[in-house]
Amino acid sequence: MARLELDEVTKVFDTSAETIVAVEELDLDIKDGEFVVVVGPSGCGKSTTLRMIAGLETVTDGEIRLAGERINEKSPKDRDIAMVFQSYALYPHKTVRQNMAYGLHLSTDLDSEEIDRRVREAAGMMGIEDLLDKKPSSLSGGQQQRVATGRAIVREPSLFLFDEPLSNLDAKLRKHMRTELSRIHSEVGITTVYVTHDQEEAMTMADRIVILDQGTLQQIGEPKEVYHEPVNKFVANFIGSPSMNFVDVELERNADGSGRLVGEDFDYSASDRLLQQLDSSTSELVFGIRPENVRIAPDAPTDKSIETTVDVVEVVGSDNFIYLDLAGREFRIRAPSEVEPAEDETVRLTFDEDDVHLFDSASGEALAHGYPDADVTATVEQSDTTAD
Amino acid sequence: MLNDNRRSRTLLYAGIAVFALFALVPYYWVIRTSFLTNFAAISPDTGFIPALGKLTLESYTQIWDRFAFVTFFRNSIIVSVTATIISLFFAIPGAYAFARLDFPGRKALFYTAVFTIMFPWIVLTIPVYEVFYFLDLVNTLPGVIIALSIFVLPQNIWLLQGFFRQGIPENIEEAALIDGHNELTAFLRIVLPLSLPAVAAAALFAFLTAWNNFLWVFVLTTDEEVRTATVAIYYILGSDVLREWNVLMASLVLLVAPPVIFYGLSRRYVGEGLGGTPG
After folding, report:
1. Cα distance between residue A8 and residue A18, in whole Å
2. A168 part of contact set with chain B, CB < 8 Å
3. Same structural domain for residues A324 and A185?
4. What is the pLDDT of residues A295-331, one digit of tens each?
5. Which of B179, B182, B275 sits opposite A102 (nearest CB)?
6. Which of A36, A59, A127, A361 counts the highest number of beta carbons within 10 A?
7. Nearest residue in chain B measured CA to CA from A134
8. Of the candidates A196, A214, A230, which is a domain's last residue?
9. CB within 8 Å: A137 and B279
10. Cross-chain CB nearest to A92 (options B177, B182, B275)
């Protein structure tokens, strides 16, 4: 177990054709025993970051420290880490038992008896005792995933690295393994860095989430924090499913501090409580609201609601996802299953000011969140039901 | 519908049978003729399937008595096996480097190597002879071995790099690095054992190419002591005015036997797949 620190870590791929900055001056401080999920779209540098920590990729600039010790120049085998790959990377010519024991044979001087004990213990934890004498080719994807995780656990390393380990599993198994990995983490308590492109995986598993885009850090925070207080439009858009609705608006201020957010087919009165977070000179804004915070309310006051036309209603059972047309742009809401408006019907939508996010239209930076900080925990139950 | 299916099936099998016959008859004829006397071999009375009494091992014994076939075969085996081993020794690391490493000039070197496969060897005979003459390698077994190793190398590199690139997931090597190997031991202990099918296939092709090679042995040797079986057959064919077809066919059978045996031995490995890694 150990603390992992990344200090202005940069990775530049220099090919003859072009120079790509994959990761730029990334700072991370991961506490001992913490489960950190690095998330972002493809090409954001998350896997490169993980591979640099593993020693599979050199660090162009900056420093990586594990338990206070610089590991930049150490070879992967000397870093005291274990990694689970997306493709599982099991040795096809070895049995499950040999796969799990291989690292211990190579890098420790434990006797065979002790190695076997640890293999059986890890196999027990993963529920794969019956598979120990089988070859990987005869196992299902889920079983191979378990073996790969077992192979990592058996090493008892200071640091676990997971590179999209659940991406090759079907949706149901993925959810199951998610819970299982969380359980194992709480059992073994080893510092973990977990890379995924799936924001739902990040939300459900992480102690803290690291969001990357184009090689730069966007936000680090607890799941609730990045959900309720995204630092910019990218994070707001990436976290949450369906993703947040954005509308370009202009702020028209009143004398008393309150104002109106006006956009195309959009007019919403905002109180001074929300607007006081803004700089007095700002007027070009992007208004953001999550689909789950919007409701259809025919008799809502006109200054607190917008009118839209229903495009498509998607029934998912527990909820209905309703796609609407707001001045030619898609507007999504998540409604209880009994709310099922007809297509082309005009509906009135409303939402609480507490749920509103305002971003700078040029930089995308968050300028104001409707939520007062203290309310964050109280409303999390709602967001936890976020499905894929 | 069912009848239609059955009819097309019957037609298919009939077609396959015709083609199989067409392909196999020459082989049958070679073996048949090799077991006849010289006279019976050319007599129209012998028939397609000769009477059992007419079969004899005479032509085989003649080969051993009249020609230095022991020398030719020994030379062939030494040359083919050594050339196979040498070419694999260089092709395996070479192919791995082309498949995995990024170094300046990688593409140019690779395409140069691949281009030599397509290049007609006959064009190179004079310069190659000049070089080997200069190095004092003409009319020596090492000379033949070096020539064959070099000319077999590109096809081996090409074959193996494709396997390293597609058959061995990079993650497996990375897992080995994390498990405690360095680049070299990961290659030797993980990649190479997994590549056995491809290495066996490459070895088979190298052996066959070397065994059947005529041009370089013909160009680089004149003495009987360093002649291989393939070239020896050419001399036997050209030596007599009256062709002894039975002797010729018997030497052909002997010539084909080692590659067939070699194929049988390597087939066990060539056929084995990888498995165990999805996607």
Report:
1. 23
2. yes
3. no
4. 999 999 988 999 999 999 999 889 999 999 998 899 9
5. B179
6. A36
7. B276
8. A230
9. no
10. B275
Asked if B182 and A77 come within 8 Å (Cβ–Cβ), the reply is yes
Q: Express each pLDDT in B168-189 by its tens digit.
A: 889 999 999 999 999 999 999 9
Q: Please tell me the distance from the alpha carbon of residue A103 to that of residue B189, in angstroms, as a whole number.
A: 13
Contact across the interface for B279 and A90, Cβ inside 8 Å:
no
pLDDT in tens for each of the 388 residues of chain A?
689 999 999 999 987 778 999 999 999 999 999 999 999 999 899 999 999 999 999 999 999 999 999 999 999 999 999 999 999 999 999 999 999 999 999 988 999 999 999 999 999 989 999 999 999 999 999 999 999 999 999 999 999 999 999 998 898 889 999 999 999 999 999 999 999 999 999 999 999 999 999 999 999 999 999 999 999 999 999 999 899 999 999 999 888 888 899 998 899 998 888 888 888 788 899 999 999 999 999 999 988 999 999 999 999 889 999 999 998 899 999 999 998 899 999 999 999 999 999 999 999 999 999 875 544 544 444 444 444 4
Q: Which long-range contacts (CB under 8 A, 24 or more apart) does A42-45 make?
A: A42/A197, A43/A214, A44/A212, A44/A213, A44/A214, A44/A215, A45/A11, A45/A212, A45/A214, A45/A215, A45/A216
The domain B68-239 having CATH identifier 1.10.3720.10: the answer here is yes
Q: Is residue A388 in some structural domain?
A: no
Residue A203: inside a domain, yes or no? yes
Query: For chain B, what is the mean pLDDT?
Result: 86
- Of the three residues A230, A265, A291, the one that is the final residue of a domain is A230
Domain count, chain A: 2
Query: Is the confidence at residue B268, as pLDDT, over 80?
Result: no
Residue A124 and residue A368: Cα distance in Å, rounded?
49
Nearest by CB: B178 against A83, A93, A136? A83
Whether chain B has a CB inside 8 Å of the CB on A318: the answer is no
Q: Which of A91, A107, A135 is facing B172, going by the closest CB pair?
A: A91
Shared-domain flag, residues A293 and A156: no
- Expressed as residue numbers, the domain containing A288 is 234-381
* A358 and A340 fall within a common domain: yes
pTM metric for this prediction = 0.81
What residues in A contact B274, CB-CB < 8 Å?
92, 137
Chain A hits for B275, Cβ within 8 Å: 92, 135-137
Contact: A89, B169; criterion CB under 8 Å: yes
